[in-house]
Amino acid sequence: MQVDAVYENARGWTGETRTDALAVLHGRVVAIGDDARELSTRRRVDLGGGFVVPGFHDAHNHMAWFGMGLDDVPLGACRSVAEVYDAVAARARELPPGSWIIGSGYDQNKLDGGHPTRHGLDRAAPEHLVRLKHTSGHMTVVNSRVLDQLDLARVPVGGDVVTDEEGSPTGLLREQAQLLLRPLTYPTPLETVVRGLGRASERYLAEGITSVQEAGVGGGLVGETPAEVAAYQLARDRGLLGVRATVMVASSVLHDLADVGFGIDLGIRSGLGDEWLRIGPMKLFADGSLIGRTAAMHDDFANDPGNRGYFQVPEDELAETILRAHRAGWQIATHAIGDRAVTTVLDAYEAALAAHPRADHRHRIEHCGVLRPQEVAKLAGLGLIPSPQGRFVNEIGDGMRAALGPEREGWCYRLRSVLDAGCVLPASSDRPVVDGAPLLGLNDMVQRRTAGGHELGPEERLTPEQALRAYTHGSAYAAFREHDLGTLSPGKLADFVVLSEDPLAAESLPEARVLATAVAGEIVYEED
């Protein structure tokens, strides 16, 4: 047998064993180690001693949002509201009056002065329409020119328009109240989404990401357009979608459907697709943000009397949607961050599974942000998949600690305890909420240290191998893709990344960088 390529002179980990070579035929691994080197091949590629691992798989990200946001005013580095206003004013000088200024990435926990306000934005850009997206995506600040165009008398359930002491809107729209902007901003033009997917793909491949799961398309807070899957198809047709994508369908898109009960037109549900683009779970929001203090909690946020957050939909409606989607055969991914939201979602899944038992459902709790000790076993017993973000601990961990207080911070974004309980653990970033580079995420899963230097639940640390397995096999399992992704075993797709250092060693992991990325056995990125 002659293969397409043999990659050799490597230090490698297939996800199951060490290897120094792998052979590829028709985009799949056919042999490793000595068996690979002995094969006849059309070309041999010397990897120069680089460390080969399966391609990274981000189990929860917002690819279109990230790619399109590369043109936004970057606010993540701002440390005061004055800096935010300066950044907006600088962009205003570049754009004609009446145009939109979009900024993203600010975090009030890191700003001297808290949230920006409409009055401050009015002063910074009096002749423009201004929208600043919170880094969590769960809230937005707009200026008066935008606010005056919104129907504030019709605030959706599950959101609020923040007001000052005199009852006047500050410009801050939280959670579902952001939908008030839809008449002005939705849908995003298809070509804009396609371009964003292409730009995101370039970044992802440079970081070793070969597969992603898009956490919401087609509607709701995170969807860009009702035709969002078409944008992915167009990006793929044009060679712009460089990574494999599983897309979660926003729950608002599902509807009554003859013979199926509940779904999307043509009876399409989770699992339809090919090696490059697939329909994944239904995506449902239970609550909001931990750092934004809108997540649904059993008890008050620390130093915030009376605030326990809120649900984005009524609890009975949440349970009914889960039941109907489960009964119709969907995989379900429910966003739940606050401990009360997690409790409610656990109960809803339990009821659905009791009413309609289904083996290997792989229902998920996205983020599973605050998980009480007594519910870890229930999570595992129901066969659920928690999908926390290890990178959150470093980048927004100080804000999470402040929201929870010392009594609850150990329950935050658990990793080790859910593994020990028997759950399969995927890894993800929720990009662009935080920097989504997997090497950063891997290190944070091992270190569990905030940007301020605090340990956040040190008992939840993973070993480097556990973290790497989460970013490969765990994420593939969460997408029903472990049959062809997640390891470099013979028969699997030949998606891999070549690193400068051994990621299985804690001391070298922080120094590792991506040297090359391969998809279907072809090098698609090389470090300059």
**Portion in helices:** 25-40%
Number of strands: 27
Biggest sheet: strand arrangement: 10-17-18-21-22-23-24
- Tally the helices: 16
What is the gyration radius calculated from CA atoms? 23 Å
List segments where confidence is low: pLDDT < 50 over at least 5 consecutive residues.
none
Give the mean pLDDT.
98
Sketch the major β-sheet.
7 strands, parallel
- Helix and strand composition category: alpha/beta
Essential attributes:
about 525 residues; alpha/beta; 7-stranded parallel β-sheet; 6-stranded mixed β-sheet
Please give a structural write-up.
This protein is an alpha/beta fold and 528 residues long. Helix content is 27%, strand content 23%. The chain is built from 16 helices and 27 strands. Strands 10-17-18-21-22-23-24 form a 7-stranded parallel β-sheet. The protein has a 6-stranded mixed β-sheet with strand order 4-3-9-25-26-27, with no helix packed on it. Helix 7 packs across helix 8 (228-237), helix 9 (315-327) runs parallel beside helix 10 (339-355) and helix 15 (438-447) packs across helix 16 (464-478). The longest helix has 17 residues, at 190-206. The radius of gyration is 23 Å and the shape is globular. It starts with a strand and ends with a strand. The model has no long low-confidence stretch (mean pLDDT 98).
